[in-house]
Amino acid sequence: xxxxxxxxxxxxxxxxxxxxxxxxxxxxxxxxxxxxxxxxxxxxxxxxxxxxxxxxxxxxxxxxxxxxxxxxxxxxxxxxxxxxxxxxxxxxxxxxxxxxxxxxxxxxxxxxxxxxxxxxxxxxxxxxxxxxxxxxxxxxxx
Amino acid sequence: xxxxxxxxxxxxxxxxxxxxxxxxxxxxxxxxxxxxxxxxxxxxxxxxxxxxxxxxxxxxxxxxxxxxxxxxxxxxxxxxxxxxxxxxxxxxxxxxxxxxxxxxxxxxxxxxxxxxxxxxxxxxxxxxxxxxxxxxxxxxxxxxxxxxxxxxxxxxxxxxxxxxxxxxxxxxxxxxxxxxxxxxxxxxxxxxxxxxxxxxxxxxxxxxxxxxxxxxxxxxxxxxxxxxxxxxxxxxxxxxxxxxxxx
Lengths: 142, 247
Ligand SMILES: [Zn+2]
Hints:
The structure holds two protein chains of two kinds. Chain A is α/β, with parallel strands linked by helices. Chain A contains two helices and seven strands.
């Protein structure tokens, strides 16, 4: 069941799945019901509700009779939960994955500067590479 | 556990979030537009967690939306600081900085709450508020230690809001009760660590810490400034006029 959820994309970064992001905390069977626990990345993340609907739909398409999705806020989500595959997929999409020091996803340079603490979504900051001048988004360690 | 306790933290986040939203489309630079919207979004999310818990405790069938849109100013229990108008970017920065610093200390206390739900919400919110604090403190220092004009405006903003900060550290009977049973904390305990951090930041910003000790209070008990009424009128008009409206 967990593997089925590998196919559920993050609505705002569709090149990574919700399992890549580490927001699926638990999947189990309770009789005929699949019970899923998700954790929101940020409290106000508008994607959370969309993801809940996508999880229900995907599991139903794979034959689940009933699906119950709950939100678990403790322990709080951390970028440490993003998987290695998640890191690769972010890099491939031109987004720097979380790291102690951001690196340019285009040329790999560690000489970068922060343009803004916030990007297009709450989990990202805006950076620019000093070496190749590429502006890029960085999933900030959180 | 009285619903009013989580409601206080929720109302602080909700009212500040609504205020910050008014910057969208008006911030001095695009990055700040995005940043203020993101901070507001986090605060709305936190308010939702607090208010839905308050609604469950109250057990009168009100969810977080009902509590947001169908209470009048007298029933809001946010501190006066957060309802203060946006003013200019320095006013907004001072308000956010004073609040973020207090919230990071308050939420830190609540992560040790004997109430599991409060501890969980606080843990989640604390991570976000610490990030907000880094941003608002950066701006306080950048504007304070900037040009003569930015310095003067940052100082004026801090002076103007100072009398609304005292309320953050005044406990009432509910605070005492929550501190005594291990659910909450005594607000007075946060005053010294808060002041210490303010002195550090103001020194880095070449600003003078305002001296006054006289303080405005009453927000926690539902006695608000006129500003809150206007803000709520705008925030609540649509769901009140069209209760069945859906996105
Ligand atoms: Zn580069």
